[in-house]
Amino acid sequence: QPHDGVVPGSNGKRSRTAPAPSQDVKLARKVSEQEVRKAQRAWSDAIKQISKIYLDGGDYVAAAGKAAGELYGYGHSNVLFKPTKASDYQFRPLASDALSYFVGGSAVEGGIAEDAGFAINGGKGW
């Protein structure tokens, strides 16, 4: 049974167009190298955790939804996520579109057919 695709911060609506850009976006300061490395570490740890849960037969879709909400800021600001392996739908402005990429289009209601599940390595795990 496919997951409904709703993740923390998502309004649950599916669309192939990005939300209107915010008028009030301002950069308050530069991002430090330490902050970048911390974000990279959090991202790689999330991918490994999702994969482990998948291989152990657990609810990897819920784990991926939680990670997407925490790591990408869906629901807090506009997100311009461009998945590495996406070609048909190259940008994923909605959290549900990102979830499809991470766990596979067949695991998410209304998922994107080209998505094999990056976080689960196309079903092989990492």
Terminus-to-terminus distance: 23 Å
Can you count the beta strands? 0
What percentage of residues falls in helices of 4 or more residues? 25-40%
Shape type: globular
* Overall average pLDDT: 81
Low-pLDDT stretches:
4-18
Number of helices: 3
The share of residues in extended strands comes to: under 5%
Largest sheet: none
Order of helices and strands: HHH
- What is the SS-derived class? mainly alpha
Radius of gyration: 15 Å
How would you describe this structure to a colleague?
It is a single chain. This protein is an all-alpha fold and 126 residues long. 36% of the residues lie in helices and 0% in strands. It is built from three helices and no strands. Helix 2 crosses helix 3 (95-103). The radius of gyration is 15 Å and the shape is globular. The protein starts with 32 loop residues before the first helix and ends in a 23-residue tail after the last helix. Residues 4-18 have low confidence and may be disordered.
